[in-house]
Amino acid sequence: QWSDSDGDGYGDNPSGTQGDAFPNDGTQWQDADGDGYGDNPNGSNPDLWPNDNTQWKDTDGDGYGDNPSGTDGDAFPSDSSQWKDRDGDGYGDNAAGLNPDAFPEDGTQWVDRDGDGYGDNAAGMNADAFPNDPTQWADRDGDGYGDNINGNTPDLCPDTPQGESVDQNGCATV
User: Fold this and answer.
1) Are residues 140 and 149 in contact, defined by beta-carbon separation less than 8 angstroms?
2) C-alpha pair distances (Å), 111 with each of 71, 73, 105, 151, 152
3) Considering the entire predicted model, what is its pTM?
4) What span, in angstroms and rounded, lies between the C-alpha atoms of 162 and 1?
5) Which of 17, 32, 125, 164 lies at a 20 to 30 A Cα distance from 118?
6) Over the stretch 28-45, which tens digit does the pLDDT of each residue have?
7) What are the distances in angstroms from CA 2 to CA 30, 42, 104, 117, 143?
8) Is there a contact between 110 and 118 (Cβ–Cβ < 8 Å)?
């Protein structure tokens, strides 16, 4: 070593004895994992994971790194209440967090306003035909009456749309 431009006690030659990985930054000198962020937690641009070159920063402070493809990556780096999104639909898996996913394994559904276990996205799988009625969720014949006989406005003939001819039981004749 022959010079120390930043005065931190580590030489400007990074491959020499006591070399400085950051010769122009007096607050950093070592980068054990080689990701470009210094190992001194009190220096500028510190590496929160000095031994993991896939993570270095955690903007929201939830313990998951901002690099979503790195080890323990954060799918929501600016939301400390969410970090994982297994189905990739943009809603977090933490039920207690902001914008939680009611169906974390189903990328076609995420909200269930009436709490009946069927999603509100009409285009998704297991869609709720009655998203505001927790007693009904299916309508096989599409007549606006629910298939759950014990629910609100039940359909006594769930396979017969209203207005078709009926037999003595009130259902369509064949």
Assistant:
1) no
2) 29, 24, 13, 21, 21
3) 0.75
4) 90
5) 164
6) 999 999 999 999 999 999
7) 18, 26, 58, 70, 86
8) no
